[in-house]
Amino acid sequence: MSKNKLVKATFAIILVSAFFSSCKPKDSSDAVSGDAAQKVYVAPGKYDEFYNFVSGGFSGQMSVYALPSARLLRVIPIFSVDPQSGYGYSEETKPMLNTSNGFVPWDDQHHLELSQTKGEVDGRWIFANANNTPRIARVDLKTFKTAEIIELPNSAGNHSSPFITENTEYVVAGTRFSVPPDNANGDVPINTYKKNFKAYLSFVKVGAKGEMDIAFQIEAPGVNFDLSHAGKGKSHGWFFFSCYNTEQANTLLEVNASQKDKDFIMAVNWKKAEEYIKAGKGKKVAAKYAHNTWDEKTHTAKSEIRTSVLVLDSKELKDICYMIPCPKSPHGCDVDPTGEYIVGSGKLAALIPVFSFDKIQKAIAAKQFDGEYEGIPVIKYEAALHGEVKKPGLGPLHTEFDGRGNAYTTFFVSSEVVKWDIKTLKVLDRAPTYYSPGHLCIPGGDSRKPFGKYMIVYNKITKDRYLPTGPELAQSAQLFDISGDKMKLLLDYPTIGEPHYAQAAPADLIRNNGQLKFYKIEENNNPFVTKGEKESKVVRQGNRVDVYMTSIRSHFAPDNIEGIRLGDEVYFHVTNLEQDWDVPHGFAIKGADNAELLIMPGETTTLKWIPKKVGISPFYCTDFCSALHQEMSGYVRVSPAGSNVPLTFSLGTNLPATK
Amino acid sequence: MSKNKLVKATFAIILVSAFFSSCKPKDSSDAVSGDAAQKVYVAPGKYDEFYNFVSGGFSGQMSVYALPSARLLRVIPIFSVDPQSGYGYSEETKPMLNTSNGFVPWDDQHHLELSQTKGEVDGRWIFANANNTPRIARVDLKTFKTAEIIELPNSAGNHSSPFITENTEYVVAGTRFSVPPDNANGDVPINTYKKNFKAYLSFVKVGAKGEMDIAFQIEAPGVNFDLSHAGKGKSHGWFFFSCYNTEQANTLLEVNASQKDKDFIMAVNWKKAEEYIKAGKGKKVAAKYAHNTWDEKTHTAKSEIRTSVLVLDSKELKDICYMIPCPKSPHGCDVDPTGEYIVGSGKLAALIPVFSFDKIQKAIAAKQFDGEYEGIPVIKYEAALHGEVKKPGLGPLHTEFDGRGNAYTTFFVSSEVVKWDIKTLKVLDRAPTYYSPGHLCIPGGDSRKPFGKYMIVYNKITKDRYLPTGPELAQSAQLFDISGDKMKLLLDYPTIGEPHYAQAAPADLIRNNGQLKFYKIEENNNPFVTKGEKESKVVRQGNRVDVYMTSIRSHFAPDNIEGIRLGDEVYFHVTNLEQDWDVPHGFAIKGADNAELLIMPGETTTLKWIPKKVGISPFYCTDFCSALHQEMSGYVRVSPAGSNVPLTFSLGTNLPATK
């Protein structure tokens, strides 16, 4: 294709996209049912029905909403630093963001997956992927804290992640941007892509307590793996990954990776892969990746660097990976609650192919192949196909399920959600969305047991939906009632960051899972804990000064400290002695160039402070804690380097005036 | 007081506080009127009535809500870095967070004030204070961007800020934690507080385009200045500051600063102060403080360090400052719409004193003084008093006004809002809040023209109001309808950070103020702009590599770059060529240890990247921009230091394979 043609093709695509995304819709409020207000209203003091966990996209964090009110309960820091809570700034949390590339304070968080037991959401943990520096995190739903992060070697653009198997045996990760493997010479021309670039699929084992470990990686051809979902029920033991750029282009992908009519969904027999690993077929390969864990007893993270992974080669082991042709750059890859149907959504397609697990198995057994792609058998399209949803819309992206035999697919280009029957493939209903939806979410909607009452659609374009806020606008979500035959729009609401995938679960499942309300002070094993005010102290070792400080309404102990010198490194280890829910204290000191601390009841947290100026530095509680919160403050005196002001600390009794 | 007594006194206060804050309320949903759901519901596609600007507290940012739906429109980064947008990480925005103490990535943002003309909210700018590193910021409401930040020397704990005069002549700042002045020897014992510690009040001049400059500071006694409000109408020309710790304690303030029955409100005649400045009475004092400004033409901030301020001495100039006794540690200091009444809220008091501006003037004229406090005349309490609201509740904190002669005061300890008549001082209504309110907000509620339809109360304790989220909970707000005689609770909603003060304005005032939707590419004067794809290039100067890159749906130009070497500093200057609203692009590269960029249409933004590994680093668009967004990516090849791989860049045409 000439450059001119490329440009024209690109332009045509932009035009189609722009037309659909900018055409002014009819007044959508007309489409809202009269009782929508009552349906989304949760009266003060009443609880919502569902927790909704929403990826933050470029914020790197996770938002927790309540449904149907769409109230934002909290934002949980995962992959980006959070100066508001001190996450990534306190000495205890810094190791959580360590990687093989050093400390990384930001990432792009796209997908979330709740842990499952027997294919049903179980409310224990939620997993999150990081795209830019490939990682998977586990958030503990007893504490709503990031408990573990594991880095993924040999990968770039970890997009088809963190989807899980039906008993949370594995959480997976694929490579969106193929690169030379970590232990190869990566200093190669970019246009040697086809020869040197590879994609790796990681299968991360999840233990009984949630602990993660890379069980094995599968080396796959250098293409772009996009999304994935595990088989379930009858298809348990298989995983399905969509991939695009099977053209293996390395530049101007919008044109060069849009050449083929069909790319692939790769079906992976992970139980077979497990057998090969047991049989010693895994190749131990050098790799460097961080594994970071949070200890709830010491309230401290540690980061370990691991040095190898086991790799299986998809070309050599002919019966673990199969390619299924899928129209035009497939994006979403979704498996219905029975495990029989696999839905591929080609983002440039005008139909939706639905594949049958039974047919795939038969096709494999009967070797109904159309040759190989880079050494991997390609199943004949028709042999794997249950059928196609005809004329559903333009640009299907993602599909969720209601557990009543219906599928709901978002269409970015034609800006709508379409409901269709999984078996008959008939379109049952369609609803416009404002504008250009990406992911959607039905509580349990990718599990064996969906709770098909609500559907949330996460739109990519906001424009005029809300009062304007300058050039930058929040992304917009829409809540639908899907309990009846027709989808009913209930509510529009802006969101945090850019929501991609989301998960939701009945509130009681999480609310009653043993929510931690505060840390018991007697179980606090932080090495710098101060378990009572009398034990508070300030200790110097060379130029390191450790302040063992306590906080309780409404004072710090000590609150007057003298004898700090320029050149010192001061560590404030603040233990919050409160033993009740929702009595955090904060700690900030003037001149700090990092963050504050928010310290939950019973917790110890550490702020490092390097004073830069001689003089008096006030510190104070940053979280309004009592009627006398404004009085919760203190002073540190900083003297010049070499000063002989003695190290003293006190509370309530004035220090002796030394000059 | 013996240490034992201190402990007992403290304990008693905690008990009172704990009792009121933890007593289980009756089911508050019973108190909600039947049509509350309809009243807060804003149908999809419809706009809210008010913008509500809410301080972020320990988040350092500002949240923008829409009322009555309580939907969060956006979070605006001001005083803390924002890895989500690149604020504080991009080369252009880094100077915004520079201070005399270097780069400070976090602060504690408590109060907001909309600009006013003739005492009415005018929708041009909103000002924000930083507590920990004393600063004032101005956010431009055409762009919703932080446009300017000025640091305040001689201060610590900048709390009574950023309140303004009725034509936005000045924005003020006080000192909460008195410290030795910056140019004094600060290496003094903390218990020399009374002798060496001072509080400064800053009067920052605001120019026609919003530009800020410290006109003068007033040196005041070493106490804790807490809150403030300008006079208006008849009292225009005066400013009122509450202060506590007039005991001048420096340790265990919860006891030692709660000894006196009355502290003070300080009345400042700033017009008189202006006269003294004109007359050359200001003393030019050395000081070091940063002044940071954002240029909308270059999309770039610059930071300048200033070196002096003019200081007036409140002890010497006897007719600019007067102390008005105010019961028990006054916190809120609020002036009614007429300017006649000044409400002081003693946070340990069980009554509310209301002072009369006319009486204050008469008392000053008649010298009805009770001696002096640290050289400042103290007006007799009764001479200044309009009257007291009797038995209103326990622990009054803040008051706002509805423009119909009514005041609304929050009570932290008794957890309620009380409506009372400003003239008669009669309590008219009371409503429980859940739990323990701090600030409250009525649109225009501290201006001459309140819009008294809604009231939002920001509570300090959340506990069981929403589905639990582990030990850490969001702070909770409550929306009331105050259009009738009785306050009606409409809605509870969690918030971002810790809201302290908030402001609100009719939506049209801001929506129709010339909202900027995108930057015109022809007006982009960023020194590293690339105004068309053909101008994109990569330039090496020594080990500095500048990438002049463009982004447009759906590719970067260039998207293949080779010849980068370990040891290089690479600057990606990304210009978003889009010229339509809400088409941002993002930019992230693997191995970055700072953030991503979000680039608004027509804008140029720069990410610094120091590659640490030899190999191929993918980059991609982080903001879903089109059906082919997933294809919007590229590669950088990093070679070892000293490599002779030539510097090349391309789009669509494969680079020559050089080996």
From TrEMBL, chains A, B:
Transmembrane segments: none annotated. It is an enzyme of class 1 (oxidoreductase). Its EC number is 1.7.2.4. Keywords: Copper, Metal-binding, Oxidoreductase. GO terms for molecular function: nitrous-oxide reductase activity. It holds the Pfam family nos_propeller. This is Sec-dependent nitrous-oxide reductase. The lineage of its organism: Bacteria, Pseudomonadati, Bacteroidota, Flavobacteriia, Flavobacteriales.
